[in-house]
Amino acid sequence: MLLDYYQLAEQPFGVTPDSRFLYLGPKHREALASLVYGTESNRGFLALIAKPGMGKTSLLYHYLSYLRDKARTAFVFRTDCDSREFIRHVLLDLGIDVKGMDLPTMHDSLNRLLTEEMRAGRRFVLVIDEAQNLDESVLESVRLLSNFETPWMKLMQIVLAGQPQLAERLARPSMAQLRQRVSMVIRIEPLTHEEVNAYIDHRLYIAGGENNPIFTAGARKLIAEHSEGIPRNINNLCFNAMSLGCALKRKTIDRDIINDVIADLDLESLREKPVATQNAASPLAKPGRPIAVLSSAAKSESAFGRFAPKVALTTAAVLAMGWAAVHTMKPATRASETPATAPALVPVSASLAPSVAPASAAPGEPVTAPATPSPALVAPAPMSGIATPAPGATPSSTATPDPASETIRVSQGQTLYRISVKQFGKYNQALLQEIRDLNPWLNDPNHIRPGQTIRIPSAKEVSTDLSHAAEQPSSAAPAETGKKQ
Q: What is the residue extent of each domain of the chain?
């Protein structure tokens, strides 16, 4: 269904090392040229080292394809073995029956094959993938294979391919003899942003998506940032983004879809650890939305990042003082016989608002609240989207919600985009503006936190029981909130 929807002949972001999809960018071309040059120069041992997912295996298949008519080759990728099993894997890949052979007999068979290939004028190349998993004893057996030689040439060229742990293994003092025989160390570096863009275009082209701009420029930039330039990460992001886009009937993949995929795959969990303290203190930090930690960002700190802890502490202190003042005045409010139609007044701490007293009041005398509430005594506007009813207020005195909207509580990992798609099946600029009009405190719609209460427009078909909802006691909202949590 995905291929038909995007008009592709095959999956462009598969997980198998298909050499047809190998993107030979500058770094991969350089690595391939080094492998070919080292082989043709009879350098003996070559080492190919790169991070996981950089396309080492795909590059090795391309290298072996190049050697198909020029040399006899053997490819070994099962490296969790001992020395005898390793030689057995080599002979099996060469098509030699090893049944009943012991280790010396297998060495003799390999020696005869090497001699035959030399007489035929062909090279022999042994490629070992995932070499970082080899034990030191097996690596020593590999080193001894290089002793198959004549006075003028090596009978076997060996390529050790693996992850950075292979470099650590070769750097050990016990591996000094093998390390000295490695004449070339070839590296594959991560792709740049421009190379990521070319990589995506290349795979879409091979899959039949020529001139089909599925990913927007903003989406590609986000993929480059969060994949760290590693092809396997790029494949995972692009495949999941296309799957989500197909489900949402989106012909074009934009940044919103990529952000949702990043949150679902949780690729940034390790990169968030260095800034976990700052994220927890910032009121705009959003769980589930990974924050790219780039090298440039690590060197500089924004002004908001420096003052966010102070803002959070100040806000918490103000809320605590307001809460204490409300509960201190609550018994007095209940004891007074205030008419049901009287507006609710909320005492405000002297540190938060100037005291209001009649000009005729003598010093030390109690001040009676005026019939018309002073602006200093009116309940402050709700903070962080959470409505706080005035103490002692009757249901008729509390603000009645807009009948054309409804209140929801933000769950873990939810975004305005996901909430809109779930509630209305769409997400556009008009709907976003309507949500912002209902939540004027929402300064940045890209940062909402779990536990926040926001208002959204009611669907036309779900607009019943509004009068009944307005008659509910003001304490019903906290009870409902507690159940959802």
A: 2-12+192-267, 26-188, 402-459
CATH code for 402-459? 3.10.350.10
Which of 403, 414, 478, 480 is CA-nearest to residue 446? 414
Indicate whether 477 pLDDT > 50: no
Helix, strand or coil, per DSSP, at residue 440: coil
Pick the closest to residue 309 from 334, 351, 277 (CA basis): 277
| CA dist., res. 231 & res. 52, Å (int) | 9
Cα distances from 50 to residues 25, 222, 223, 430, in angstroms, run 15, 23, 20, 48
User: 10 Å Cβ neighbour count for 205?
Assistant: 14
Compute the distance between CA of residue 121 and CA of residue 153 in angstroms, rounded to an integer.
12
For 347-382, write each residue's pLDDT tens digit. Answer: 433 333 344 334 444 444 444 444 444 443 334 444
Q: 16 pLDDT band (50/70/90 cuts)?
A: confident
Angle ∠(278,227,251) on CA atoms, nearest 5: 110
CA distances from 274 to 229, 266, 323 (A): 21, 16, 35
Q: Token pair of 420, please?
A: 């809109």
**The domains spanning 2-12+192-267 and 402-459 adopt the same CATH topology:** no
Cα distance between residue 475 and residue 86, in whole Å: 73
List CB contacts of 86: < 8 A, sequence separation 6 or more: 76, 79, 134, 138, 141, 142
- The CATH superfamily holding the domain 26-188 is P-loop containing nucleotide triphosphate hydrolases (3.40.50.300)
Q: What is the CATH number of domain 2-12+192-267?
A: 1.10.8.60
pTM equals: 0.55
Q: How far apart are CA 369 and CA 314, in angstroms?
A: 29
Distance CA 333, CA 311 (A): 32
